[in-house]
# Entry
Amino acid sequence: MEKNEKKKMDYRQIFIILAVALAFYIVFDLSGRISAAHQMDAEKDLMGTRVAGLQQTEIYLQTQIAYATQSAFIEDYIRPEGKLVQPGDIPIIPIPGDEIQPTQSATLPTPKPTYANWEIWWALFFGD
# Structure
């Protein structure tokens, strides 16, 4: 009878060890999934911020397109910047004059004193 009880104990121990191992596997897998969910939430928030910025850019560009298609744009930009004139306008084209040449003041180089070799050696050995 002891062998029968010992076998039952062995099966119970094996079952308990497998159950504990399965529980650990489930807990670690759940932990990994929770971590991945937090990372995806952070990425979702980042993408939401980027989308909001891009929507603002789109609105700005749409207003620029709407302004560029109006006649006010032609009066404000094309005529002054593009140098376009309407019939009846007299265009004025400035003609550049002669280039002004800067005058350089004549500076004479300062003459350097020349010394004889013996004067140089004398100054090196005995001072000035």
